[in-house]
Amino acid sequence: MRLVIIGGGILGTAHALAAVDRGHEVVQLERETEARGATVRNFGLVWVSGRSADELAITLRSRQLWEEIGGRIPGVGFRPAGSITLVRTEAELAVAEAAASGPTATERGFELLDPERVRAVNPALRGKFLAGLHCSADGAVESRQAMPALRAYLESTGRYSFYAGTEARTVTGSTVLDDRGRRWEADLVLVCPGAAHTGLTRELVGDIPVRRVRLQMMQTAPLGEPLTTAIADGDSFRYYPGFAGPALDTLNREESQAFTAAQHRMQLLCVQRLHGGLTIGDTHEYDEPFAFDVDEAPYDHLTAVTEELLGRALPPVVRRWAGVYSQSIDPAAIVTRVRATDNVWVITGPGGRGMTLGPALGAQTADLLNL
């Protein structure tokens, strides 16, 4: 078959990879010269630890696929680094203990470590904490270099072409007309628009059950030592459904987040990039219109928490950014797939799970459509 995939982010590229791996031909169109949305404005984390029980199977499948992809495409920078969620209060410790003894703990690679064992796994963590929930299943990729690496591999097959700076204007039947007047004939059209819910997306399927979420993040200069795992703080328990239960209810009832953290719906996630710098975030904003500027208070909070856990000052911050991703409104929906016509589908809304779940979602779509 011949597919036209509209959108050059992780979801569109994962679908291209799934199709090419099944022997099909793919033309991929991206309106920017390079993916510039949530695909590159994220941690690059392949995050197993906090996914709900309903998401766990597809998350573990995606983790397996990322490892396979990293083996054949080293440029994506996959590494099975794992993560440690560091807890600083008794209520947070109770959530970590419940997770480490829960029914899916083995699948997630959970183990609760005392401070000495935390430092044995990740010697850079010399700060203040009671314990750490280690998740050996978590991994990371290099979000800013993964898409070019995947495209280079796809192009090497001879069955893939990428057209940057090309905006799809209309889809008639299964023919795509772009902004340069070119017509792209296909057996199947997959539209992966990210957070672009208007324009072509709305023309094809109207208003769909997704919303946009804004985040803020930052990156430091090289740390000067390895941060061997990704790290998170206890606030992250509040944002991941895998930690739901009586212990989390008690945490939320007895311990409020700091004002800035609560105001900006924050958690600390931190991962070291291959160049040595740290990507640190993040915030969550749900009510549009979003601000066009960034707020400094969240950065101050994240800096303070990271320094407390590391037990040292952070290197200078070299860049800050905001981003917007698409999230399905139904909390039970991992992604939103809407059929526009027999041969045209719109696929979006994985929320903050796009990088984690991209390969599995692409494979799942291929199976659903009998590719």
TrEMBL record:
One of its GO terms (cellular component) is cytoplasm. SUPFAM superfamilies: FAD/NAD(P)-binding domain. It holds the Pfam family DAO. It comes from the Bacteria. Residues 3-368 form the FAD dependent oxidoreductase domain. Keywords: Flavoprotein, Oxidoreductase. One of its GO terms (molecular function) is oxidoreductase activity. Its cofactor is FAD. InterPro entries: FAD-dep_OxRdtase, FAD-dependent_OxRdtase_HpnW, FAD/NAD-bd_sf. Belongs to the DadA oxidoreductase family. NCBIfam families: HpnW_proposed. This is TIGR03364 family FAD-dependent oxidoreductase. It comes from Nocardia terpenica. The lineage of its organism: Bacteria, Bacillati, Actinomycetota, Actinomycetes, Mycobacteriales.
